[in-house]
Design a protein that fits this description.
The chain is mainly α. It has one domain: Cathepsin B, Chain A. The protein has seven helices and two strands. A hairpin with a 7-residue loop joins strand 1 (about 140) and strand 2 (about 145-149). One of its GO terms (biological process) is protein deubiquitination. InterPro entries: OTU_dom (IPR003323), Papain-like_cys_pep_sf (IPR038765), Peptidase_C85-like (IPR050704).
């Protein structure tokens, strides 16, 4: 019984952390709404200071996996393979990911949906990719502090 309670507490902590992060984003955006009008705001300027730049990737639901393929292999053509490898990794490490599934669906449903071409990936998939390929991923967002996975 204690194990089940610990799992539930871990899930509640994850939900609370997500809610706090969303509230923080809303507050930052309300303080400077012009920064977020086009979805990129001042991201390009932010990246230029780091000698980085954005790259256009097709926004077809495969964009996360296309971007990962582009950065890892130099081309977005392996996005389908990366999607499948990431989903397989998540299944093989279910205990690491199952508490972070959103939208009140099961972990297996999440992975089954994620295996489908055109399904948008998120933070869980970024973490799975980083662990699977043993790389660090740094996420940049306009006007927000970048974070490392």
């Amino acid at each position: 019984m204690a194990k089940g309670k610990a799992k539930q507490e871990k899930k509640e902590i994850a939900k609370t952390n997500k809610a706090q992060k969303n509230e923080s984003r809303k507050l930052k955006r309300s303080r400077n709404p012009g920064l977020y009008e086009d979805g990129f705001g001042d991201l390009n300027a932010q990246l230029r200071t780091l000698q980085l730049c954005t790259k256009d990737i097709a926004g077809d639901g495969n964009c996360l996996f296309r971007a990962l393929s582009d950065q890892y292999y130099g081309s977005d053509r392996k996005h389908k393979e990366i999607r499948q490898e990431v989903c397989r990794y998540m299944c093989d490490h279910e205990d690491d990911f199952k508490y972070f599934v959103e939208d009140d669906r099961s972990f297996k449903d999440h992975v089954r949906c994620m295996e489908s071409n055109g399904t948008y990936g998120g933070n869980m998939e970024l973490v799975a990719f980083a662990r699977l390929f043993n790389v660090n991923i740094k996420v940049y967002q306009p006007g927000l502090i970048d974070y490392l996975m």
